[in-house]
Amino acid sequence: MGCCTRQCTMITICIIQLIATTERLVFDFLGYMYVPMLGGFLDIILILFGLFGTYQYRPKFVILYSIWKILWLGWNIFIICLYLNVGILSIEEHLYILNFNTGKESWWREHGFNCSITYNITTVPSSGSHTQRLEVEGCVLDYQYVEVLHAAVQCVLCVLGLIWAIIILRKFNEEEDSCTGGSADKLRLR
Questions:
Q1: Mean pLDDT, range 151-166, rounded to an integer
Q2: Is 122 helix (H, G, I), strand (E, B) or coil?
Q3: 5-9, 78-82, 132-136: which has the highest mean pLDDT?
Q4: Is the full-model pTM beyond 0.90?
Q5: Cα-trace Rg, the chain
Q6: Whole-angstrom distance between the N-terminal and C-terminal Cα of the chain?
Q7: Angle between helices 59-83 and 34-55 (to 10 degrees)
Q8: Which residue from 3, 16, 38, 126 has the fewest beta carbons nearer than 10 Å?
Q9: 137 has which bridge partners?
Q10: Banded pLDDT at 19 (limits 50, 70, 90)
């Protein structure tokens, strides 16, 4: 089975999406961000649907992929708004949405490029307990912006995937029309 230019482009976009989602999924695992992990797994499964649907001429798979990409685009726009504190959303108040209220934060918060971590240990005289407060300084890029960049890459890939899914579906529809139209004309001639 040959691969036309449209199909090869869609397959390439799906492979790039798989790579980008897998990379993001690894860092969500490292930061114990459970909701983005679940979304990442679902994204990988539905990208595979789009990939196989494109390769095997299965329009229903490509339609399912397209519907998921619209939802995934909305999720990533939400992530961007959450990390940039747009409107009523703020990462300090709504972090529980991403980690099932476990208190974990993005892996990039402590492990960003050129970040230095400082632990402030204080002793309360009456109880003798120790509390630690984490301070991260000197990062080249704050963790919020790294997360926003990850989500923005996903948004761009979603839009590209949607555009090419529509192109592929139109191609499948044209090929189906040409097949059914040709056989109907042959039946009329008999």
A1: 97
A2: strand
A3: 78-82
A4: no
A5: 23
A6: 32
A7: 150
A8: 126
A9: 116
A10: very high
